[in-house]
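Sequence in, structure out. First:
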Amino acid sequence: MATASDLSVGQFIRHNGELVQIIEYIHRTPGNLRAFYQGKMKNVKTGKSVENRFNPGEKVDIVRVEVRELAYLYKEGDSLVCMDNESFEQYNISETYFGDAAPFMTEGMTVLVSFEEGDNPIGGTPPTHVELEVTYTEPGVRGDTATNTLKPATVSTGASLMVPLFVDMGDKIKIDLRTIQYVERVK
């Protein structure tokens, strides 16, 4: 068993019987009180955030998590079917693990999936950027470029996002999957 002073951001621990990932972890030393660790954690299954104080010598249960690169194949109901490129084993990964980026994912893209104790998926991370073609958007109005005006656009995966007025149908655009925002036009 590890102690609270061994923890760092990004680690998975079992806290109150639930699997959580540490998002923020700060060592605090208030003036006339004992030092402690302030941790902000995200529940892996529910996605809820929890904050807790740890004493420096407090025992914690660190969970070993394996991260694998998988190829996204196709969507099946509420899960995404991904394949290990080395063993060709297929896994059904919950769409919620990829958050808002799931509708923008294309077949064949490489994703990172976290596994607990063998083949139990507990999280997924899409690539940071994706390049997609705009399939539908309204034409931009000439002269309306004094401000950073945005318009809705639908991309080849069927998902929608806001793009600048100069983007037209047929343009390839780069999208940041962390924030689901337009980055640039791709030539």
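Second:
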Amino acid sequence: MAENNGLERPCPRCSGSGRCVDCAGSGKATCPGCQGEGTRTSPRGLESSCRICGGVGQIACPSECPSCNGTGRISASFQKEIHQKYTVSFSNYSPMARAVTGLTVLTVAVYLLAPPDFAPLIPQPLPTLIWSMLRNHANVLHTFELWRFLTPVLLHAGWWHLLANMYFLMNMGPPLEGVLGTRRFLILYILAALGGNLLSWAFNPVPGVGASTALFGVGAAYVGLSWRWRLFDEASARRIGTALTLLLVLGFVLSDFLGIPLDNWGHLGGGLTGLALTALGPRPRGH
């Protein structure tokens, strides 16, 4: 039953029964096309089977009242939730880059201290030590070095790898941080990194490195917030979701058939984590 906060009242649509008034809770309603006859007659008098119901005279119908989700009661909190869900809100935020700037500076700094493709700014063995301390490995659970499920986001395989990821972060991060707020954006980034690196550790022979595990979560968050709360333009969110899906499919193809070492499982884990956090989490408060 809906939360009783003193403002709860019977649902006016179903009179408190919780059953759909169109089908009386049976799950079947009279076909509106043929009025239950199963057939339709053309202006010329030709009779044919109703295309809407397939000739059975009935169509599927939710058995629960859609206005109260079958509870029979309407509360102020329930009304507020429904109103928020179906209200498009584009004006309650502006791009923000506190977390994005900090993450970019930290990631670039780690790369400059321990680059894999040119002479580091600090003498050996410190760059090698940084890599050995931050990257993931197959025995991480046995050694209890659980930070390695997060720190690979700070490592990159080359300047091109770093440039691509930081470009994505600086372009896609600020609008999302503006909606979620700095704290929640950081939580999303960290949890997407953890989800991605866990899947990478579980399914890759050699766990991957790079911020793309977290960045797939950032991209998927646009889809989740658009679908659940309509906080981003639906067409734009659909394009982002399609692009991420194509990248995943292409990545698995390139890895399986051409042997190109891409962290596809890490990307998948980060994307699923970001999608779940935004689609199932509470509505952002706006800024």
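Remark: Confidence is low (pLDDT under 50) at residues 1-6.
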